[in-house]
Design a protein that fits this description.
By secondary structure, the protein is of the alpha/beta class. Helix content is 36%, strand content 24%. The strands form 3 sheets. The chain has a 4-stranded mixed beta sheet with strand order 1-2-4-3, with helices on both faces. It has a 4-stranded mixed beta sheet with strand order 5-6-8-7, covered by helices on one side. The protein has a 3-stranded mixed beta sheet with strand order 9-11-10, covered by helices on one side. The longest helix is centred in the middle third of the chain and has 28 residues. It is globular, with a radius of gyration of 20 Å. It binds zinc ion.
Length: 256
């Protein structure tokens, strides 16, 4: 699973000075929040912000402020973060006119009316990327969900096939789920499962999750050996982890 990955970046190598972490985790009650750290030469004071668009929590830190001071500030304001996150706008339903990030690219949902048929990817009247949904207007949400599941399944199956061919171990089964706590998992019997919401992220993120779970077919742990396998399969592993820490929560807003 992926949620524990943050710990890896907090373990300093013994000799080299450690670059600052990109984010830190702040606990409040039973919940925890990822806080993205941003150094700024212009900032005069520590500033916490919760983005209403993405749900991202950002701490801006003046250049000369010590990391420990910034960390203490974030932890002291855990209650404030929890309150702000709780007040974020709710879910975004799949409806006519709404833009959905299919493979990370905004696609406008267009209800085209006419005969009932599955939704498909195409172009809107202005030539922009769109999800075209024929048939009854009240089935738009359902049709878009079905399309996203199909696309997620196709992309994950292709990525898993590529990575399993590379490690030489077949996967037994791929299941799509809608889990909040993890993006993917691998059972001892070789069953892989993934969140369908990965289709809303840029392709390298989905590819990373496929590589991560396929690497578990070889190494059922998060050892150094496991990470070597993952990084060989997916050179953008660190970038993908960082993307998920920063934007992962936002993927859960989609769908009624
Ligand atoms: Zn894992």
């Amino acid at each position: 699973m992926v949620l524990s990955l943050l710990r890896r970046s907090l373990v300093a190598p013994p000799t080299r000075p450690q670059p600052e972490p990109a984010a830190l985790r702040v606990a409040h009650g039973t919940a925890s929040y990822d806080v993205v750290l941003k150094r700024s030469a212009r900032a005069r004071r520590l500033t916490l912000r919760v983005s209403s668009a993405t749900g991202e929590v950002v701490l801006t830190i003046p250049s000369r402020t010590a990391l420990a001071t910034a960390e203490r500030f974030a932890r002291d304001h855990a209650g404030w973060i929890a309150t702000r996150v709780a007040k974020l706008p709710g879910r975004i339903a799949f409806a006519d006119g709404v833009e959905v990030p299919l493979r990370g690219d905004p696609h406008r949902i267009v209800a085209t009316g006419g005969r009932r048929a599955p939704a498909r990817v195409g172009r809107d009247a202005a030539g922009g990327p769109a999800i075209l949904v024929p048939g009854d207007a009240d089935l738009v949400g359902k049709r878009v969900s079905e399309l996203l599941m199909r696309e997620a399944r196709a992309d994950l199956a292709a990525a898993v096939a590529r990575h399993t061919a590379a490690v030489g171990i077949p996967a037994r089964r791929i299941t799509l789920r809608d889990t909040r706590s993890r993006w993917g998992s691998c059972s001892a019997r070789g069953h892989l499962s993934f969140s369908w919401r990965l289709i809303l992220a840029p392709p390298f993120v989905l590819d990373y999750l496929a590589a991560h779970e396929v690497a578990h077919l070889k190494e059922m742990n998060h050892s150094a050996r496991f990470w070597r396998v993952t990084e060989r399969l997916c050179p953008r592993t660190d970038e993908a982890e960082a993307w998920l820490r920063r934007h992962g929560a936002g993927l859960h807003r989609w769908g009624a």
